[in-house]
Amino acid sequence: MKLTGEPGKVEALAEEAVVAACTLADAADPSRWSAGAVEDVAAALEVLAGALAQLDPECAEILSVVPIAATAVVERAEQAAAGASESVGARAAAGISAALRQALAAHGLARNRVHQLGAALVTVTLDAPEAEALAVLLSRRDALPRQAQQGDDDGWGAGPAETAAAALADALRAHGTGAYARVLASGQVSAGLTPQTAEAVVTVLTARPGAASRGKRRGLGSGFKGIAAR
Using one digit for the tens of pLDDT, what is the confidence trace for 167-192? Predict the structure, then answer.
């Protein structure tokens, strides 16, 4: 990454952004925020993160959490505006995150990172083989493999990690709305799911035999679709 030391329009605009952000921070306190103001600031965070992400792939990976966090903050603000109980929601999400960690570990998927981003979003990061194994665990027992067709644009057949992410995304969508899975620059697969979807995943994993009784896991194999959408 090569940075220029010459002053220009970007430097001037960046300085204006800092001044505006400082003015906003000085004026804001918990009692003055509205759902609309939170949404505007969250949008600004996403735009700024997107601009910095253009520096290089490593910066893009570091900043990839910003849009997810911004969305979670907006959803939390909307829930508060609607009279939802934030403390109850946060405690419930924390309990779901812990249950999800335990359910994954029970199936031998111990190398995972589960994070609670507010009360509205839970993220799970796995190595590609474990993401694919989780997709198999979450698939319906009557689902038949389907070979990916050439030209698929959702990750199927693009490579082991992309195929694992596509399989996991399909499997998660069968258990709730708003779930996604994507490949990080590190090659790992990161999935985002609502607390409701996370709870459904825990229910499915808890109902199925654990790793000890299941024996060695077998993946789907690159280029094959083993998940049938409901």
Answer: 999 999 889 888 899 998 888 999 99
Tell me phi and psi for residue 126, to 5 degrees.
Answer: -135, 155
Let me know: does 124 contact 190? Beta carbons within 8 Å: yes
Q: Is the pTM of this model over 0.85?
A: no
Q: In 3D, which of 34, 54, 191 has the Cα closest to residue 117?
A: 191
Question: What letter would DSSP give residue 186?
Answer: T
- Whole-number Å distance between alpha carbons of 183 and 186: 8
- How far CA 207 is from CA of 40, 137, 159, 200, in Å, comes to 43, 11, 31, 11
Alpha carbon distance 3, 5 (integer Å): 7
E strand segments, the chain: 112-117, 121-126, 146-147, 180-183, 189-193, 224-225
Closest CA to 131 of 99, 163, 101: 163
Instruction: Please tell me the distance from the alpha carbon of residue 35 to that of residue 201, in angstroms, as a whole number.
Output: 30
Rounded CA-CA distance 40/192 in Å is 23
Interior CA angle at 188 toward 184 and 189, to 5°?
80
